[in-house]
Amino acid sequence: MKFVERLIEIIRKKNSLLCIGLDTDIENIPEKLSGEKDPVFSFNKDIIDKTHDLAAAYKINTAFYEVNGVKGWTSLTKTIDYIPDDVIIIADAKRGDIGNTAKRYARAFFTELKADAVTLNPYLGSDSLEPFIEYDDKGLFILCLTSNKGAQDFQKLKIDGKYLYQVVAEKVVELNKNGNCGLVVGATFPEEMKGIREIAHNLPILIPGIGAQGGDLEKTIYFGTDSKGELALINSSRGIIYSSKGDDFAQAARNAAEELKNQINIFRRKKNL
Amino acid sequence: MKFVERLIEIIRKKNSLLCIGLDTDIENIPEKLSGEKDPVFSFNKDIIDKTHDLAAAYKINTAFYEVNGVKGWTSLTKTIDYIPDDVIIIADAKRGDIGNTAKRYARAFFTELKADAVTLNPYLGSDSLEPFIEYDDKGLFILCLTSNKGAQDFQKLKIDGKYLYQVVAEKVVELNKNGNCGLVVGATFPEEMKGIREIAHNLPILIPGIGAQGGDLEKTIYFGTDSKGELALINSSRGIIYSSKGDDFAQAARNAAEELKNQINIFRRKKNL
After folding, report:
1. pTM score
2. Does the complex come out with an ipTM higher than 0.90?
3. What is the extent of the structural domain holding B76?
4. Does B183 touch chain A (CB under 8 A)?
């Protein structure tokens, strides 16, 4: 099954655009897990147990695992293995390298780690993305317009009247022969999201920047989803997984996840009225 | 000591601009190592033993390690630990993420893995680079113009008469307050290298693309080094480490490294005449 078809199937089955970011920081997990052999995995396991029915996807930012070295890569592997099949696993790795190297990254994330999708950086151009595109059952979310202030340094530069991030979006649309390309667009730029959705009307968009980064949820849903109110994944990391520092952390994460999922669906219905 | 000062000291002491790429592929290492517990590390160890006196730097491409999962990250860690202090260790990771995440990557590569420098992708802008810049004894090599065909897709787009890669070079010059920023420029574009060296006259440039990728060595040295014939690292990976598939692989790598080091120095002298 093509990646985009599987994504739509999961979104519909669960009636959810929610993506939960497992940016698990060893310094932020509850006391009671500190005695565990692999506290990061134990934390993730409890969060996954309590939230997998609500989430269309988990996004796992590799930095939070690499910072713990070999141990971290072990937690990352165990976490991916533990996630049930009906949730899309996005390795938020933001890789980007020349073809020969990109082939290794594709194997590392798709074959070795068994992620369903990966985030990629477009700076090296088409041939850095193609080794990933070949896996048509796997997904690529390519950085287009990011949620941070530095997005203006290069992404918002103008090329013949178009912004660089728009040129990137157009190129990704052109590369999407296998139905597995998507974009990453930060929720902090709803107006720009509108323009990107017009360029990439049938591409999934992964949207971080809700919550801690201050993105506007209603506008994000309105402009970021496709004409059916689908094809977008709304990510929240810290806002969900650190809802409580106490023993009730997993239930608190569930509550936060459920609230966000429902709020997203309210705005989806409003859009479709 | 500031990163750039340490780099110059090593370049002068060894009279070498050579950077050896440890892009070690388990499928390309000699038979006789296949029985070892960690064949990738054993291969690297032998290569390092035979070449460390010739090299100013080792560049370790993380993709070739991540493709082996937890085992690969172990080989990467052991390799970095094994490299002597008088060789700069560049983690060729090409990371790039928002500030909160970039902090973790900086810690992962500088504190946890103990690399001396890292390659970074500029697409997310200044605030994605700043957490690395704060480590003034560590180096950042930021992708400017890469050696692959896809470099033309975005890097060679024109913004108000300037190419994107030139805008990137200018921004990195501006960010270089701590004497630790450098650029990555592929050897396959010698004319463009000239222009970049004019913008970034006091920045180290890491130059891949010699050998398998077909860059012209003489022009690369002429345009890529600074006015003293220094401040550049010329990388060769496959051309050195896979010189022989037999039991003599480490000696063959040494021979190839020595030849390239000497050839580089011939062109440096020619430039300075």
Report:
1. 0.97
2. yes
3. 3-272
4. no
